[in-house]
């Protein structure tokens, strides 16, 4: 079976607004503080702080578009950028897979990115460690595994993704 890749990434207004607001916040706060404190060079300081903070928010925006799920003949890789996991297809319990559009029930983030429109990395979910790659919660699928963690992924085509994983898992 050839490799199949399913996009998990996608533009969401909530993520775009969050990133834009967070990118503008340091410069705006610096401007207000400098304006109150001394005044004459407030715009220069605000611009400098914004330019220093901007790479962080560009990084977050890039992460948003790198997330994908790839099905190999013997394994599946989910994630993108700094956060990804590769697991054997034999470890997936597809008979227990289910849609889970209520991604807000996720517990504490232990290592990853958690912001409106992008959840990527390691979280706690109902007392179990779980790797999450979600940009569109309405497409989220919970994939239990026989490993010490589960996977929650939100491919743009959830039904096609589940069919492809099932086909790959049945291949010798």
The Cα radius of gyration reads 20 Å
Total DSSP E strands: 10
Number of helices: 3
**Strand fraction:** 25-35%
Helix % is 25-40%
Number of domains: 2
Spans with pLDDT under 50 lasting ≥5 residues? none
Overall body shape: elongated
What is the SS-derived class?
A: alpha+beta
Strand order of the largest sheet: 5-9-10-8-7-6
Mean pLDDT: 82
Largest β-sheet summary: 6 strands, mixed
Q: Kindly report how far apart the N and C termini lie.
A: 10 Å
What does this structure look like?
The chain has 172 residues and is of the alpha+beta class. The chain has two domains: 9-65, no CATH class; 71-170, no CATH class. Helices cover 37% and strands 30% of the residues. Helix 1 runs antiparallel to helix 2. The model has no long low-confidence stretch (mean pLDDT 82).
What key attributes describe this structure?
30% strand; 37% helix; 10 strands; elongated; alpha+beta; 2 domains; 172 residues; 4-stranded antiparallel β-sheet; 3 helices
How would you briefly describe this protein structure?
This protein is α+β, with helices and mostly antiparallel strands and about 170 residues long. The protein is built from three helices and ten strands; from the N terminus they run βααβββββββββα.
